[in-house]
Structures are given as structure tokens and as C-alpha cells.
């Protein structure tokens, strides 16, 4: 608990102080979503049809934007070296940082998503599955993103490279996230697809802190 | 296994098999191409477009095999610190990307006359496309650091993360594909006639032998690059004495 | 001669078949040439370095 708690509290405190960062991510989510009606046309039924997919894709891109700084600050000021050398279980540190990251970016995205769903004219039946899918999916997004963020530390082209590494890995989440909402809209139960998302989350919690820790270790080596 | 970790040992074996695999590649192309293009019969449904299959399928097989080889090499590098395993993975990546691209291109050139469209979001094509992005990510990450060793380690971890995700992605894409009812592909794979197997195997052999041949060339060149770096390093280290 | 024209025509699918074979051949040859050239360039560079050190 101690390592996890210390790092988690520190990161949350930092995020509260720099709350503009989280707001920027939410603003990006909103703007990127609002672009679609301009690109596709304002027909209500067309927008309703694409709403689940659009919300998921833009949420993934917004989360991706925030990943850049996940370890970068600690890497630059040397905190990361200390954490690695301290002998504390690094995967716990990673898990704490990612939990903090999810609470300060994933949760705000989740909160704003119903409002954006309204602008896309999504039918009422989709709201609860959308929230459930985002709740189960965004932790995986942060966990997988953590691996990418650790891998690109100190590289020449961080941000763009990160998206190339991480976005292909997001495809399963996108598929099942969108499908959860769509199945509800077509009168089916979203249960099975939500279960798959939960399964992904369990897998990601088990493996990705470990992979991220390995990536961090080689970054400061 | 540890025998191969030594560059000298590895290169001794590689140099010994090099003329043989190069020969096999040449022979397979020499026999395979005329059979694939001329003597093998045109399919009664697909006509001569079936000849594209002799390029498409071997490219697909190699694309996937090379990815697993790369992941295995990366694992050996990360776990046992085998430098040669890393060089094999690194030297394989551009070829893996090339075969993946060729598989996609040939698939498209086959799809247009047969299905009337260059691209269908068929489960296999989609998975191959995602694999292509994995290769691009691996290549881009390996090349993104000032310190080449840092790039080696980072991309090795990425290769492993990717290979763990391959089954998950395939499962997801299959699920997605069956749910969205894709354009029905009237061509079933089961009607492959015996006449097609010979050119297919020959071209598969040709591609595989080509891969091993070029792999040996590329590993040699990666080894030289490392030697050049070391020589430069020691030159820089020797610099102050020279100035005196 | 007719047989040869039939061969080039590929039963009306010449564009598809020949571009598939052409692109594949160019890629494989390109990969081979690139790899051999890199090897030779590095060999040369290494020899120069070795000689300069005596």
C-alpha cells in the first residue's frame, strides 16, 4: 500500500494543481466530436448511427494526447531514476501512476461523454451502455498507453511515435466498446461485450504494469 | 542455444548455410515462376487471377512467420541478453513489413477483379493491416533514439507486447467481422485443386529461402555497424592523447 | 506467337496479374539490392576505420 499510496497521492495532487491539463483533454474530446457533424452533415439519423463509434474513437485519441506526460515529467527531473533505484516494486509504482492518470483523464472523459452523445443525437437506450463501456474500457486504455508512454521516453519523436505504437493495440477496445453501445441500440443486451471489455481490463491490469515497468527500467538504464 | 549467442559462431553457421539457401531461393524461383505463370491451369471460376494467389499466400505466411521470429528473437535478447537474437529480430523487421505490404497489395489486386473492390474489411485482411502497423511501430521505435541500444531494448519490448496482442486482435476482428456481415465472399478456399499446390509450395519455398538469404546479409551488415560504432567510440576515447 | 500473346493477356486479367508480379518482383529485388549495398558500404567504412587506426 505504501508505495502505491505515496505515488498515487503525489500524482493526484500534481494533477489537481495542473488541472488545466485534464481540462484540455476533455476540451479536445469535445471539439474532435463536434467536428463530425460538420464533416458528415447534420442529419440526425446519420449522426445517431455513427455516434457510438465517433465517441469511442475521439475518446481514444483524447486519452492518447494525455499519455505523453505520464512518465515524461518524472523522467526529465530524475524522479524516475530514484523510483527505479529505490528497490520498491516498480510495477506498483506504475499501477499507482496509471490509476491516477485514469482518474484525472479517463473519468473526466466518462463524465462529459453523455453531453457529447446528446449533440450526436444518440438514442436514450445507448447512454447507460456507453457509460458502462467507457468505465470498463478506459482503464485498459490507460494501462496499454502506459506501456507506450514508457517505451518512447527520451525518443526523438515522442508524441507521434506513441500514437503509432498504441493505436493498433486499442482496436480491440474500440471494437467491443462500440459494439456494447450498438447492441443496446439495436435492442440486444450489451452484457457479453461488456464482459469482454471487463476481461480485457483484467488482462491489462495483470500484464501491462509489468511490461511498463520493464520499459521504464530499460529507459533509465 | 547459447552457442548462437556468440557472433563468431553464429556467423560461421550463417556463412555455411548461406550458399545453400541462396541456391534454394534461385531454384525455387526458377521453377516456381514458370509453373505459377504458365503451366498451372487457370481456375474455372477465377480465371488467371488465381495466379496472384501464388504471391499473396506465401507473402501472408512469411509476414506472420517473421513476426513470430522477431518476437522470439526479442524475447531471447531481453531474457538472456543474446545480442545475436536482437540482430536477427532487427534485420527481419524490414522484410516482415515488406511481405505484409506485398500480401496486402496482392490481395487488393486479386480482390478488385474478383469481388469488384480493392478492399473489403474481411477479417484476414484487417488483421494483416494491423500487423503492418505493428511492423511500422517496431521500425519507427527502434530508430527513434540517439543511443541505438536504447532503441533495441525498447523495440524488443514492443515486439513482445505486440505478439501477446495478436490473438486478442484476431479474436476481436473476427467477432467484429461476423457481426457486421461483410460483403459475402463467394470464393471458398476449399476448391483449391491439386495443380495449385505445386506452384504454391515452390513460391512459398522461394520466399522463405529469400528471407533467410537476405537475413544473413542484413545480420552481417548489422554486425559491421556495431563494429563501426565500437571503432568510432575507441577513436573518440583515444582523441585526447592524439592532441597532446 | 498467339500463345505468347495469350500469356501476356492473362485471360483479360493482365493488369491485375502483371502488376501483382511486377510489384512483388520490384520489392524483392529492391530489398536484396538495398541490403547488399548497405553491407558493402559498411564493409568499406569499417576497412577505412581499421586502416586509419593502423
Outline the secondary-structure elements:
The complex is a heterotrimer of chains A (221), B (244) and C (54).
Chain A: H1 2-17, H2 19-40, H3 44-67, H4 69-76, H5 79-85, H6 90-119, H7 127-151, H8 158-185, H9 191-220
Chain B: H1 7-39, H2 53-80, H3 83-115, H4 123-142, H5 148-179, H6 194-243
Chain C: H1 2-9, H2 14-53
What does this structure look like?
The complex is a heterotrimer of chains A (221), B (244) and C (54). Chain A has 221 residues and is mostly helical. Chain A is 86% helix and 0% strand. Chain B has 244 residues and is mainly alpha-helical. Chain B has one domain. Chain B is 80% helix and 0% strand. The N and C termini of chain B lie far apart (47 Å). About 2% of the residues of chain B have low confidence. Helix content of chain C is 89%, strand content 0%. The relative contact order of chain C is 0.07. Chain C is mostly helical. Chain C has one domain. The model of chain C has no long low-confidence stretch (mean pLDDT 84). Chains A and B meet through helix 8 and helix 9 of A and helix 4 and helix 5 of B.
Low-confidence stretches of chain B: 183-188
Summarize the main sheet of chain C: none
Question: What's the rounded overall pLDDT mean of chain B?
Answer: 84
Label the structural class of chain C. mainly alpha
Main sheet: strands, sense, barrel of chain B: none
Taken in chain order, the helices and strands of chain B follow as: HHHHHH
Report the structural category of chain B. Answer: mainly alpha
Oligomer description: heterotrimer
Number of helices of chain C: 2
Q: Topology as H/E string of chain C?
A: HH
CA distance, first residue to last residue of chain B? 47 Å
Largest interface: B-C, 35 and 27 residues
Report the helical percentage of chain C: over 70%
**Domain module tally of chain C:** 1
Strand content of chain B: under 5%
